[in-house]
Amino acid sequence: MHAWPASEVPALPGKGRDLRIHDTATGGRVTLAPGPVARIYVCGITPYDATHMGHAATYNAFDLVQRVWLDTKRQVHYVQNVTDVDDPLLERAIRDGIDWVGLAERETALFREDMTALRMLPPQHYIGAVEAIPGIVPLVERLRDSGAAYELDGDVYFSVDADPHFGQVSHYDTELMRHLSAERGGDPERPGKKNPLDPMLWMAAREGEPSWDGGSLGAGRPGWHIECVAIALDHLGMGFDVQGGGSDLVFPHHEMGASHAQALTGEFPMAKAYVHAGMVGLDGEKMSKSRGNLVFVSKLRRDGVDPAAIRLTLLSHHYRADWEWTDRVLQDAVERLGRWRAAVSRPDGPSADALVEEVREALSDDLDAPAALAAVDRWAALQESGGGTDESAPGLVSRTVDALLGVAL
Known about the structure:
Layout: E1 19-23, E2 28-32, E3 37-42, H1 53-71, E4 75-82, H2 87-96, H3 100-117, E5 125-128, H4 129-145, E6 149-152, E7 155-158, H5 174-183, E8 200-204, E9 220-222, H6 224-235, E10 240-246, H7 250-265, E11 271-277, E12 280-282, E13 285-286, H8 297-302, H9 307-315, E14 323-324, H10 327-344, H11 353-364, H12 369-384, H13 393-405
Parallel strand pairs: 3-4, 3-10, 4-5, 10-11, 12-14
Antiparallel strand pairs: 1-2, 6-7, 7-8, 8-9, 12-13
C-alpha cells in the first residue's frame, strides 16, 4: 500500500531541541533522545468513512513529533497501518450495499488526499492489515505454541496472564478494562475464555465474511491488536521511540499490543513512550463515526476552507487536550492565517532569530503548539506596527512556520 506525497521541509539555521513528551505509561514526561534514526508507529484508520477532525488532530500531533525530530537533524522512520478488514468496515459495506474492498480503497484514497492537503508528512511504510496477514499468522502460531495463546471454538485468544507487564500502559483497574473492552471491540462476556479481558488474535472464518489461509490456525482473519504488533515489529523492532494514537487507544489497543509484543520477544517495553492525543468533540460529545457527529476534512475543503486554516485550528489546541469544534475556532484560524500571510508578505520586518528558538522551545516542551502560535502572533504584531528592517526576517518566519508547524504561508 502506498502513502501520500511528502511536502518539502525547509532547513532552519541551528539545531532543534530533544523532545520532552508526556508518556501515558509512566504518567509523566520523558526526554526522547533517539539515535540517528528516530522510530515512531502511529495507528491508522479503519477506512469505512472519511477523515474527520478527530483523526486530523491525532495525525497532526504526530506530524509535529516528526518535525521536531527532523529539526534535530535526525532521520525519522515512521510506520502507520490501515485496518482494511475489521467488523466496522464489513458492517458499513453491508449497510450501504457495497463491496468492502472497494469501500476500504475509496476511503483510504480520500484519507491520503486529506493528509496531503494538510501537509502531514507521510510514513515510510504504510501497511494494510490484509497485506500484513502473511506476517501475522506466524506470530499467532508462536504465541499459541508457547502457551501465551489458546484456542476456543476455532478462534485463538491471547492470554493476558502471559505478560507480567500487562496493565502497565494504561494502569486501569479491572472493572474499567472490562467496560472498555466491551465498548471497543472486545468480548469479555464470551464463555470459555481464561480471562474475560483476553483479546482475540485470530478469528476463525465466518460464513459470508472474508477469510485467509492461516496455516495451522485454519482459515480466518486477524484480530485488531496483533495487526499493529506484526507491522511494528517487522519495520521498527522492539523498543522503538513512540507508539502513538488517540487517547481512546490507550485501552485496549495499545495495552494489548504491548503485551503481545512483550510475550513474543521477552523484551520490555515495546515502546519507550506511549503518546496519546486528546479527543475532538462536537455538540458536547466526542466526535466519532459511531455517533455520526463528524466534521469532515474533505467537506471543509470542498467548501473552500484553506487547509492551512484547518491545520491552524488543530494547532491552536494542545495535542493532549480534549476540545470542542465550533465555527468560531475555525474562523479564528482563518483570521490568524490572514494576519501571518500579510506579515510575511512585506519586504522586511523585525528580526526572527529569537522567534525560531521560541517555536523550537515550545514544541520540544510536550508539543506546546499554542505557545508556538503565540510566538508567531507576537512577531506578526511587531511587523504590523513597523518594528524592524531585517530583510531576511519574513522569509525566515515563513520557513519556520512551514518546517516546524507544517503551515505554508
